[in-house]
């Protein structure tokens, strides 16, 4: 199984979750590439594409929320998942999953993964589903339980 994981991350949390998912996939023999959205190539001959971003203001990061993250110590990001999805060509039904990092769960928390799923469908991906991973703060790594859950999820996806 060949997998492309594209992440957008300011404080490293979403990138860490992406790497944990990759470790789980790799443990089952998958060929996995993890890349930052700003430098991600268009999908090629992958069996699965996974796209992840942090949830900002109940959805995907925007230029304004990116600037706010940078002023709080996050890395500078000029193009993220939304821009990457906008510029890639349509897919021929490639399977896809969306994931996000959130500070809490529930209806009012919002979900970047929901927005990612919608954009993926607009590019003709076969969106299998989405998953959220809870973080405790911007300056701290995701809890070990969430990273373990991400790794297990990756292993499950690889069969």
Automatic annotation (TrEMBL):
Family matches, as InterPro entries: Flavodoxin/NO_synth (IPR008254), Flavoprotein-like_sf (IPR029039)
Entries under SUPFAM superfamilies matching the protein: Flavoproteins
Q: Which residues form a coiled coil?
A: none
Family annotation (PROSITE patterns) = FLAVODOXIN_LIKE
Q: Boundaries of each Flavodoxin-like domain copy?
A: 3-158
GO molecular function annotations of the record: FMN binding
Could you identify this protein by its name? Answer: Putative flavodoxin
């Amino acid at each position: 199984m060949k997998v492309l994981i594209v992440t957008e991350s300011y404080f490293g949390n979403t990138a860490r979750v992406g790497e944990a998912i990759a470790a789980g996939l790799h443990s089952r023999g998958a060929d996995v590439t993890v890349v930052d959205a700003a430098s991600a190539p268009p999908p090629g001959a992958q069996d699965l594409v996974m796209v992840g971003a942090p949830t900002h203001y109940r959805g995907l990061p925007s230029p304004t929320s990116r600037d706010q993250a940078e002023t709080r110590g996050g890395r500078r990001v000029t193009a993220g998942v939304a821009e990457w999805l906008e510029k890639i060509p349509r897919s021929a039904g490639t399977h896809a999953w969306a994931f996000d990092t959130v500070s809490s769960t529930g209806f009012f928390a919002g979900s970047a993964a929901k927005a990612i799923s919608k954009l993926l469908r607009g590019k003709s991906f076969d969106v299998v589903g989405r998953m959220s991973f809870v973080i405790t703060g911007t300056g701290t790594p995701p809890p070990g339980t969430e990273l373990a859950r991400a790794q297990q999820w990756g292993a499950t996806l690889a069969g």
